[in-house]
Structure formats: structure tokens, C-alpha cells
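Hey team,

Filing this mostly as a record. A colleague (T.K.) asked me to run one chain through the structure pipeline before their review meeting, and I want the input and output archived in the tracker in case anyone asks later how it was produced. No errors, nothing strange. Just documentation.

Input sequence:
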Amino acid sequence: MTRPLRRLALLCMAFSTACFGAHAYAAQTMSADMHDTMTPAPAGEDMYEFTLDEVIVTGYRTATPLTLSTDPQRPRQPIPAADGAGYLKTIPGFSVVRKGGLGGDPMMRGMGGSRMVMDMNGGGMSGGCPNRMDPTATYAFPETFSRIIVNKGPQSVRYGASVAGSVIFERETERFEKPAMRGSISVLGASSHRFDDLVDVTAGGKEGYTRIIQTRNYARDYADGSGRRIHSGYGRHSLTGIVGLTPDPDTLFEVSYDRSRGWAKYAHGMMDGSQFDRDSYAVKFERAHLSPVVEKLTLNFNHDTIDHIMDNYTLRPAGMRAMGTDVKRVQYGVRAVTDLRFSPQTTAAVGIDLRRDAHYFAEAHKRLKGAFNNDMDIGTFGIFLEYNRDLTERSRLLTGLRYDRTETDYHNARFRNGMGTLTRNLVPGSASDHAVSGFVRWERTAEKRPLTFYVGLGHAERPADYWEAYHTWAAHSNRVSGQTAAPNATRPAKERNTQLDLGWVYTDETTNANLSLYYAHVDDFILRKPVGGFGNVDARLYGFEAEYTRAVSPRWTLGASLAYTRGDDRTNSAALPQIAPLEANLTAKYSHKKLETNAVWRLVSHQNRYHRGYGSVTGTDYGPTGGFGILSLSLAYRPDENLTFSLGVDNLLNKTYAEFVNYSEAAIPALGISAGGHITEPGRTIWFKSNYSF
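Output structure:
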């Protein structure tokens, strides 16, 4: 028996104790890993539901145009990483910038960062790191959410100005009709000593409930297809507590607390994330059927504190310069939404958003610790209106309009190196931005076929976000080096995307097919430059996603998807950077009684369109990449409706490959990592997962 198979066997035998012993194990192995870095390692939903016994997700069903919903609690093939980015990568049209084993930055249709709104548990939340070691998806453990909703393009205004689209992580707790308890336990073991566990228990009755969710995630450095060790280990522990009051069927009052602690190694940069601490509080109030017109009122309050330390000495050999920075982000948000129904044919929604975002940093060098310094404050106000009307029995019109105002205050940011010498003294200032977004979409369903056609025109605007503003400010306003430009003088202009979407959706009992086409013209696209931070160019993006799945027999289901985006920098007559190449996925599923097998063949074309040194907040172009094909297989067994065992192997042929979208800027000589290269992906990965619900 090979070593990976022996490990999996041991994981299966340890199922009963693993959920409670993983945290101590992770703490011990984290300490071991910190010393192991000194020595190189040896080489080495709606979804398709044609049958009730499908247990592993390999594709998605687009039930409504430009929107898909998926259940993240079901096993995925290939197995996702332990955060939201890893899960999104499995959806056609998404790509992820790899930095290590955790903390990837997702992109939708070639656009990421603040162009893609991410909402989690009723409020927006952003990571703390100025180098985006911890984008929002880093703090989203998918299995703790009820569903993940993806809205493509600027065709919604409810959650913000969606230049690329929006991703919504929703958590709902099912109400109780009588006193009871329910829950679920899942355990995953995989190559690279990866171990995930989740315990989710809810108890309650007709008048309320209490829920506790606990997760642990741990992995050592993975090896690519050539056996080369990639600096990528991570560990995380999270705890969620929820108390809900349900005095009647129309009322919900809920208070929740999320706490997570973690660390992650990164092959992409000069530093690792030695600390990712998050504390989040949320309050939600819902009241339905307030009147014949007011269908529901929803109030959300969110408070998030992120304390993140990045350094080059905790998780790797430091060398001569043991440097680090402690950054903190404190965020408050309030959202009020009223859903209206004027008639069976006419609905609307009106809402308001308020958000306050304060950013701090301090020196965290090995021999010098500093006090927190408030470098930037961002305040936002937003208001939106959506209006939908059935024009005829088979056609409908959907519209939306949004206004946002952003106030940014730049403070006197001072920073010292490990020797105590002042290296950064930035010029303070302020900026004010206004943005208007909106969309209109027409949908029509065929008379005799389950076929829907849609065409939509959307417009979205956004100012420079924290990362774009900060790096441009730092590039032009450091008085230590004689730069005295006011921050608003060099700040990039706001970005404006006007986009046309059209497509078809076909769904019947055995077949699901959809085709989405889009063309986006972006004025003042915010582009990362080799020097000087960020600037503006005019850009265009266009492409498509196509998906087809058919149950060819009671036991066999076949599927295919295709996604492509092309981006052009029209100002410089160059390729728009960080655009993933053409990608196809072929899937096959065989199910019989309690057994299911799946095969996924992912095919990615080469990419020769790049603009070296240019990029976005998510990554930078370094050169071309070759094409590749990755085959993954899985087997699932469900002895009863409450218990599922699944076993799989990803990258079966152990290919050595790298995604085009990437972010590798700094050399790490002690670890054999050169600057400006593509981080290779994991080699052959064997995994086992168990799910039990009660």
C-alpha cells in the first residue's frame, strides 16, 4: 500500500475522534512546519438533480438568466481549497490567482478585486492586507453557508456596484416546528496532510434556536506534478455562534458571532501571513407581510475586525532582514431593504447601505514592534431601487438603479524599518467620489418549449478601492524620498463599465443548457502599472460561457462547459492583463442505487496574450503559459440518506502545470523561489470525505 493510501486508511479509522482532536494536531504540526522550512522536502443550485441520489457536484444548473445558486455543503469534484476562492474556481467563468494553499483571489470574466462584489452573511467585508493576502473569500469556509449565489455582470444593484458581478455567501437556519435538534458532521482528509472538519449543531423550538458551527482546516506544503515542494501550508480554526428568535412565522431576530484564527504560507511574495484573526458580529431582523404591498423588511448590521500580521520570519527562514507589518481593518455596515409586491405581475425593492471602513498598520519586525497608525478611512453611502414587471404571460422586464457616495480620508502614515529608520511618511489628504449604476433586462420564455431568451444592458461605476488608492498614494506621496503629491492628485479616476449581456437558458426533465454572451466597454479601467501604482486606460472585454448537461439514461449523465474571455487595453493597444484563456470541462456521472461515480476532465488552452508587468490588485502578467488537461475521478457511496462517503483523486496523471492568472513578484532564495514566475498547481491529490447529518 502506498503512503497516501495508508494515510487515507488511517483517516477513515480516526473518523470518530478526528473532529475533536484536529486542533491540537494542527498546532503541533504548525510548529513543526515552521522548522521544516529550513530543510527542502524530498521530491515527491441549483445544480443538476436528475436523480435524487446525486451526491458529488460536478456542474451547475442556471435556473434564471445570469444567476446561479449552489449548495456548498455537498462534496465537489475536483475538491476545492479550504476557502471561498477554491470553491468559486470550480464554476465556469471563474479563475483564481494562486498565492499558496489558501488566500487565492477569485476573478469573474477576467475581472476581480472590488469589481466583483462579495457579500457574506448579510454584509460586505474586506480583507486587511494591503497586498491582498486575505481577500474576502479567505474568510469564507464554504460548508458553513447554506448557498452561494453568483450574479454575472452589472445586472443587479442590490449588493453594490457590480462592475463584474457579485458573489453572495448566504447562511440561513431552518426554523423548528417543535423542540428538536439537528446537525451535521463532515471530515475530509487529503494529500499534503490536509485535514478539514466541520461540526454544525442546531437546537431549538417554535420560538427560536441556537446554533454552533465549528471548523478546522490544516494542510502542509503541497507538491506539484514534478514533486517540487511549494511554499503553501496553512491552518485555520473558526467558531460561529447564532441565536435566533422566531416569535411568529413572519418574524426573525438573529444575532451571530464569527471568530476565526489562522496562518498561511505564501509562495507569491516577500512575506507570509503569520496571523489572520477575524472577529465579526451581525444582527439581522426580518419581518414579512407587513402590509398587502410590503412583502418583507430586512435590516442587517455587521461589524468586522481583522488583525493580520505579515512577516518573513515566522514561517520561513528570515535571512538578514526579519521584517513584518501588523495591519488592522475595522468595518461597520448597515443595510435596510424593503421588498414590495404591488400586484402578481409587479414587484420592487428599495434599500440603503451605510458603511465605515478604518484601516490601521504597525511595525511588526522581529526586533521592533510599533503602535497602530490609522492610515486611511473610507465611508460609503448607497441607495438602490429595483423594479420588475411581467409584460405578458411569457415576458418580463427587470430594472435597477443605484447611487453611491464614497468619502476617503488619507492620514499621515509613517512607517519604520527593522532598524528604526523612518522609511515612509505619506502626505495626508481626502477625496470624494460619486457613482451611478443601473441595468435593464428583458426576458422571454418560449410558448411551447422550456426556453428563455434574455438581453440586458447594464452600467456600473466604482472609484479606486483601498488597494488601488493606497499603492498609488505610496508611489507618489512619500516625503522621505522627496515626493509630496497630494493623494487626490494622483488617485485613479473612477471606473465605468457599460455591458451588454444576452443569452438563452433551456431546462427540462433531462436537459439543462445555457449560453451567455457579453460585451463590456470600460472607460477609465483601473490598471496596475510596473511603477507608479495604478492608472487609467480604456478597455473592452467580451466572451461567453456555455453549459450543457443531459441525462442520457437513468444511470448516465454527461455534461460539458466552455468559458472564454478576451480583454483589450485600447489605450496602449495591448492585451488586458490577467485574462484566463479558453477553458472547457467535460463531465460524466454514473449512478446506481447507493453508488455514484464521476469523472471531470478540465481542458485549458495556452495563453499568449499578456502585458508583462501590468495587472490589477489581484495579479500581474509575467509571460505566456502552456495548455493542459487535468483528469479527476471520484466515487461516492450513500448507505442511507444521512451518511455519505466519497473518495477521489484529482490530477490523476500528476501533470505539472500553472494557471495563467498569477501573482509571484518576490524571490525567496532560501526556499528556491524566483521572482516573476508562475506558481505551479498541486500534483496528484487523493482525498476522502465523510458527511453525516442527523
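Quick notes for T.K.: DSSP finds five helices and 34 strands in the chain. The chain has a mean pLDDT of 89.
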